[in-house]
Structure formats: structure tokens, C-alpha cells
Amino acid sequence: MSGAHGEHGSARRFPPGFLWGAATAAYQVEGAVHEDGRGGSIWDTFSRTPGAVLHGDTGDVGTDHYHRVVEDVALMADLGLSAYRFSVAWPRVQPTGRGPANPAGLDFYRRLVDLLRDRGIAPLVTLYHWDLPQPLQDAGGWAERDTAWRFADYAGLVADALGDRVHLWTTLNEPWCSAYLGYASGEHAPGVQDPAQALAAVHTLNLAHGLGTRAVRAAAGDDATVSLTLNLQVNRAASDRPEDVAARDRLDRVANEVFLGPLLDGAYPEGVVAETARYSDWSFVRDGDLDLIRTRLDALGVNYYTTSLVGAVAGDAGDGALAPSASPDAADRPPADLADVTWHDRPGPRTAMGWLVEPAGLTDLLLDLHRRYPDLPLYVLENGAAYPDEVGPDGQVHDPDRVAYLHDHVEAVGRALDSGADVRGYTAWTLMDNFEWAFGYERRFGLVHVDRTTMARTVKDSGRWYRRLATTGVLPPVEGR
């Protein structure tokens, strides 16, 4: 258990063996989209759709990680990382999403895992971080249940290649985003705006996790540690009025419980089918599906960035309710009418994404999961902030806001540990500035700055701060506080 700050300001110390990592995703960093047999993905297609991505940016080059992997792993070692979370590009392994593996694709990930292990860095492998092979989308994508079986085949190929050299397997990253941003709001690939398809995608993704987990264990052994990574929302009611509390609860069901329920409890949350009946009759759920979805989960990955303040829609708000607003917090939400909620703005510091900085929400989330699933180890697999930092005249990147953000959120993890939560690692998002999905290269989350012309890497002040944390396990102070 980590030690709290003492009366005289003694630093918080984290447990021995606690993993300190950084995270990336294949499409955001690898580049080399036409090399060594890689097929096209939904993000290759989406990023070429006029108006879909800021400035028309694509992941064609990313940070050129595919060609600079030796340099990048050396950089990770210099930062003192004990873990690196990366994703495997499905179309690099299976160019069409079907059939045998592409040997060159698997060789890249074998090499990456070997490089990491040689440096004492634990590989944390995410099998799916949003780059569905385009031919599978042409056949229906995540709204088509057969995609779950295609994912299981792919997962087995990767697990067979990497075997027991992976510290932690994650089947899916943020299925919420894949379903709701991909198929409801259309803000992410494949850009579909159809709530019925979004709900079907939720179920197919859940099936993919269950089937993929079994495939990993069949190929890599039953001792393989398999997780799922969820961006669970921390939603707070705008008031204690019953209407606002009910709206918060509806949002929790459609955003969080549609994943936690079948994965960990073997059932979809009561009420969610009726609440979304205007979009779907949920006939995509077939006999035996819930048994396929619910399988042993060795750990749960938690991605956290902000909280939301929500209430009843305007017509149900009544006297005394907060006025609705176009809150930036709603930017990465599904269409509000999926849960009949309104988002409300709040004062406080915000990141370049417009997200409120609220570290206490991370503590609350970890403790809520610990109370519900006390035997389930937790990993914070994404947490970080975008700020408009630049290389200064001194050749350095001074990003005090990010340093403060990381400090306060790592402290929030420590507070959860103090209260008994079984948290075993923290991976900052992200290792280096990269392709930030629909925001292109404009939004920078990295511990390391990447020059878009030369691809030169420059460790930011936040990266140096994080090095102190990763190498000592002691939370460094924030200058000026």
C-alpha cells in the first residue's frame, strides 16, 4: 500500500513492483500503412474522408514508430518505464481481417516484444485499438456479429506468435468509443450515425472480448493474464432531484453497465433494453451469448480523463434545475437521446480537449470498482492531458500544466490504494505526441514532443518528471507548489 503524505510533506511511495508505463496505439504512431503487407483499416478510410479529421491529417506516417522502434524503446528505457502498453494493428497481421497471418506483421511485434523485454520493460499488449480491417467493415463491421469470431481468430494468431512473453493482454480498448463514436455520433471511424448499429456493436464487442479471451488462453496458455480496458464514465447528477438522479442512472446503464454487466455479472443491466427500445429490440442477443461473453477476467484496465455533470433533458427538468449547456465535456459522448440526458458545464481548469480536470474522479472510479469487484486487480491504462505546448527557444518543452495534471492523478491513484483498491500499475497517455484521432496532430498528449518534419523526439519537462516517478516509485513534487 502506498504511504500518504505525512504531516511534514513526506512523499508518497508506491508499492514495490507497481508498474509505471506509457501507452500508444498502432494507428496513432506506427505509420508504414502500405508496407510489409499491411491492409487498409477503417481509420485509413475515415481519415481520408473530407472533413472527418482536423486539417485532413492521417495516420499514414504517425510518429514513424514502425521504422524507429529501436530508438523508441531506448527512449522508453531512458524514461525509466517498467511497462509499455501498445496495440497490435489488426490489418498488419490479417490484411483482410480473415485468413492466415501476414508473417511480416507478426515479425514486427515479435521484435518489439523482444526489444522491450531486453530492456526490462513489460509488454502490455492491446489486441484492438480501433483499426478494424476495412473489408470487415464492408461486411457490416462491429454491427455484424460475425466480426466477433473474426476477432477471435486474429487474437489467437497474435497470442500464438507472442506466447507467454506478454505481461498483460487486453482484448479491446474502450469498446464504448468503438460502438458509440464509431456507429452513433459518427465522430470516429467508420463514421456511421445509426444508434441501432451502435447498440448492436456494443453486443458484438462484448462477444469479441469473450471469444478473444478464450482464443488467447488457448494459444498462449491458461496462465495468460487477460484484461479488457474500459473508459468508464464518472457521471455525477446535476442535483439530488429524482429526475436528475434518474438521468444519471440511465447514462450509467448505457455507457458503463452495458459492458460491466455482461462481462462481469453475466447480464445486461435491467432497464436498458426498454430504455433504448425506440432504436432496437436487442434481438441481436441470442441464446448462449452471455455465457460466451462472461469468462474469467484476470484484470480490468481503466482509462480515465474527466467527469460529467448530467441531468434530465430540458423538457423534464422542472423548476430549480440547472440550465443545459453545450459543455465541452459532451464532446466525446454519444447522442444524448440514447440516455435522455443533458450535460451541464462546470467551472474549473480544463485541458486542450476541453475536459474538466478532476483527479478525485479517478479515486472515486477505482474505489467503486474495488467495492463491486474486490478480487479483480485494476490497472490505470490511460490517463493524461493535452496541452498546447511547443519547443521553446532553449530547445526544451516546458509543460507545467501536464506535470501538475500527472502529479494530481497519480496522487489520486495513491489515495485509492490507501483505501484498499488493488491497483497494480499506471500508464500515462501518451508516450509521445501522435495522431489524436479526429483531432489529427493538433492535440498533444505526449511525455515526448515529436517534430512533425524531422520526427526528432524531445523529452518534455513532464517526461523528466515522470522519469523520477518511474525510477523511484516516489511521487515527485510539482515545482512552485
From TrEMBL:
* Molecular function terms, GO-annotated: beta-glucosidase activity
Per its record, the protein catalyses: Hydrolysis of terminal, non-reducing beta-D-glucosyl residues with release of beta-D-glucose
- So what EC number does this one have? 3.2.1.21
Q: Which UniProt keywords apply?
A: Carbohydrate metabolism, Cellulose degradation, Glycosidase, Hydrolase, Polysaccharide degradation
Q: Where are the catalytic residues?
A: E174, E382
One annotated Gene Ontology cellular component of this protein: cytosol
InterPro entries from the entry? GH (IPR017853), GH_1_N_CS (IPR033132), Glyco_hydro_1 (IPR001360), Glyco_hydro_1_AS (IPR018120), Glyco_hydro_1_beta-glucosidase (IPR017736)
Binding-site residues, substrate: Q28, H129, N173, Y305, W429, E436, W437
Q: What class of enzyme is it?
A: hydrolase
Q: Which residues form a coiled coil?
A: none
> Which BP terms from GO are recorded?
cellulose catabolic process
Name the Gene3D superfamilies on file: Glycosidases
Return the NCBIfam families for the record: BGL (TIGR03356)
Q: Which family does it belong to?
A: Belongs to the glycosyl hydrolase 1 family.
Q: What is this protein called?
A: Beta-glucosidase
Source species, please?
Cellulomonas triticagri
